[in-house]
Structure formats: C-alpha cells, structure tokens
C-alpha cells in the first residue's frame, strides 16, 4: 500500500510537470514572456534591447486594436484558469503529504502565475466596461481605481520571494522546472507592470478607439493605423493630441457639414412656405439669414472639431460656451426673421398708403423686439447655468414695485455696471471725485470705497460716478509733470539769462529721467480694433512735452518757465527726478552768475536834484 502511494505521487508529479510544460496563457502573453526573457539577457547590446522594446510596443498596440475590436467578447469571456488552478491545488496537497518540497514550490509558483494573469484579465474587463463613461476624465478616474485594485490583488499574490531558489545548483528535473516557473512568475509580474504602464500611455487612444467601435468605424480605423507610414506620422502628431485618423475624420466632418448646408437651406425654405405669415417673404428672409447661417455652420464645424480632437468627448465648459452661442444665434435668427418680415410689410404699408399709424407699428415692433431679446437672454442664461426661476420671479408686478421703492439701490447698481464696463478706474487706482481723493479699495455692488492719503476710509455710492467728473491719476503710462517758475534778479545780464535758458533746455533733453520727443514707448492697446480715431498718446497717458522759455517780467523778478515730464509716474521717483533737475539748475545759474530773486520792495526819495534809491 505504501509503495502504491509513492507510485501515485510520482504519477501525479509527472502529470504536473507535463501540465506545466503545455500551459499556454495566450498567444500575446506567451510572446511577451519570450520578449521579457530576451530583454533580461545581460549579453544583449543597446540596439538589440531597443529593437525588443519596439517589438513589445508594437505587440501591445496590435493587442489593443484586437481587444477593442472584440470588446464584448473580452467582457463576457474572462479567462480565469479555474480548471488549471483546481488541478494544481490537488497536486500541491498530495506533494505536501509526500514531502516533495521543490514540487510544491513549483506548483505554488505556477498557481500564483495563473492568479497574476487572471487578475490582469479582470483588469482588462473592468477597463473595457469603464470606456463608456461620458468623458476622458471620468475614464481616467476609473482607470486609477481599477489599476489600484490590480496592484492590491498583486501585492497579496506576490508576498513570498523565490529568488534564493534560482541561485541553487542542482541538476534535478524538478528543480529545473521550479526555476523555470519562478522565472515565468517574475516575468509575468513585469508584463503586468508593463501592461498598466501601456494603459496609461495609451489611455487617450483607448478611449478614442472605443468611440470608433461605438460608431462602427473601428475596422477602417484599425486598417488605416496598420500602415507603417501612418504610425510614423502619428508619432509626430501625438504630442499635439492628433492622429492621421483624427485628421481624416475632421476633414470628412467639415465636408459633410458644408454640403449639408444646402439641405438645411432647402428645409428652412420649405418650413417658411408652410407658415402663412412668412411664405411671401421666404426668399428675402433666407437672403438676410445667409450670413448668420454661414457663421453658425462655421461654429458647428469648430464644435465638432473640438469634440473629435478631444477623443469624441465633450468638455463641460466648452459645451456650455457653445450652447450659449447657439442660444444667441437662435435669438438672432428669430430677430432677423421678424424684422425682415416687418420691414417688407412696412414698405407695403407705405406703398399702399395704409391708414395704420406708423407710431403704433414702430412701438409694436419695439415691443416684439424687446420680448425677443428677453427670451433670447433667458435662453442664454439657462445655458450659462443661471437659475431662471429666480430671474422670472423678479419680473412680476411685485418686482416692479420693489424696484420703484429701491430706485437709489438700482441707480447704484447701474452705476456699478457703468464703472465696470467703462473702465474709468479699477481697484488700486488713485482717483479724485466730488472733492474726495484716495486709492480705490473695492468696487462693490452699491458703493466704492476709497482709502484717503491720511488713512481714512470713504464709501461713495456708485450712482455718483454716473453724474460726477472723475479724475484718475493712474491713467498715465509715461510722463508726470514737473512745472516750475524760476525768478532771477532784474540786474542780471541778458547774455547770461539767454545762455542759462539754453543750458537748462540741453540738460533736460539729455536727462535720463526726463521724457522728450525722442523717448520711445511700446503702445499696449491694439488700435487696429478700434472703431474711432483717437490720439494714441492721450489715450494711454503719454506726455513728452519739454518747454524752457523766458516767461514774464514779474514784480520783483524776471521769470523763466520750465515745463517738462518725468519718465516715471511713481511719486517717489518723480520727486527724485525733480530734485536732481533743481540741483542741476542751481549749478547752471551759479556758472552763469545768476541769482534767484526774492520778493522785494524798492523805495525812492524824490529830491530837487533827482530820485535817490533808499
């Protein structure tokens, strides 16, 4: 009986070795195993390793196309190796009782290898199921979850290290089989890591291919991608989020939308003919609408291009923007239809000399246009995410009553809009309004707060800004004025005065901090987009005037006017420049024997011999 048990163990052991020898995970994994073995060969050159890496990436790419093309099959048929695992567990338990240590390790490692591949197959299934989420960002979140689950399961499988067994020197067939299983076990771990890395690298392509599969164009896409030249071009386009297939689809979409334009015109004309009120004006209305529809088609093209570029995924913010634009164009089209029909009808009334009052027609048309604008605004607000219930509730009679009672508040609110849209001043600007001066702290809905230079806080109702003059000292980019009058004594010589004026002017023209006509400035405002003619210098606040002239004969001095601008508008830098100019003027006066005059009074004593100055 004992001999029979020993024979049975050896038979089962032999069966286990045979089973191990014939195990095939899948064609893809078996090929990847061979590549991993080759790459782990220390005798390979750099070029050989690079060739193997390229081959590995090519195989991953081919497998990806295969999986997406047969998505449903891979979801419904997850290979779990249950039969092989069950058999191995039986063999392990027998080998344990028989004391065959290496055989137990061999089969335990094989069991873990099956678990790794099974875990990878589950990951593939979960990834395929998560591809149908609305956006690529949602897919990325799902991918993070499932790869984390894969790694957690893998960490439980790979708790034991078998590398010490690989160092054993023994020619027994059991040990050789055990070593082979261990090498395969570690290689499968590498393949699992490489597979996850490939998923993250190709997540955009994976999501895009799934969309192609959903739109039933996966086969032509895979066919196009199979060309070597296409792969080469794709590698160049990939950093920009593009591919050859994407470009082809974008081009075809543009063509289709362009040719559908005529179909749209015909459908719109048929619609107008069915409406009695518009049937007589269909041609004129379509002519007026043509430009708007052309722009709308262009916008639809842009929307579709962005959708395809983003791997057939909508971006919430972008979709909202396009919905707002569509709402605006819907309103515009209705506005054009109504006003075109109204203009034609008005011309008819004029020719027929109708008794209908023109004022009544004009008022009626304005009311209609008002409601069109209001409805269009509500549509745009809806697409912008505004709660229309709150907006509509404020349009009732009670809303008008409250508005009348709170007219000052509304005045201040519209004053706020006036300030914000007119760009008269901004936070941080030094302004002066209605006798109050300071730096703008905040522009609120009702009031604007100023911080005065003596550190007090002033709140000014925004309604004031609509009716008062505002002086903004910050609306200047180059040039802060320096103006002074220099008084010199009457007994100064004309030549000295003339020479001093000349030297002062030359000093100012050569001063590095004084603006002159030669001072260069880079204009910030794009004047090409403005619909009016303005002085660039005055618009941006640029002053370069420089004047030095003999100005007047004063009561006690001959006065010289100096009028110029410092380059900097900063107060401290302006003071430094002004001080430097004054010091240089003092030196010039000293060099020309001129003295500053001061207010004085001369008294003359008139005698018979003449006048005597006292």
TrEMBL record:
GO terms for molecular function: mechanosensitive monoatomic ion channel activity. This is MscS Mechanosensitive ion channel. Keywords: Cell membrane, Membrane, Transmembrane, Transmembrane helix. It is a multi-pass membrane protein. It comes from the Bacteria. One of its GO terms (cellular component) is plasma membrane. The chain crosses the membrane at residues 240-260, 292-309, 321-342, 363-384. InterPro entries: LSM_dom_sf, MS_channel_1st, MS_channel_C, MscS_beta-dom_sf, MscS_channel_2nd, MscS_channel_C_sf, MscS_channel_TM-2, YnaI-like. It is found in: Cell membrane. Belongs to the MscS (TC 1.A.23) family. Residues 366-407 form the Mechanosensitive ion channel transmembrane helices 2/3 domain. It holds the Pfam family MS_channel_2nd. Residues 408-475 form the Mechanosensitive ion channel MscS domain. It comes from Sulfurimonas autotrophica (strain ATCC BAA-671 / DSM 16294 / JCM 11897 / OK10). Signal peptide: none annotated. Residues 482-596 form the Mechanosensitive ion channel MscS C-terminal domain.
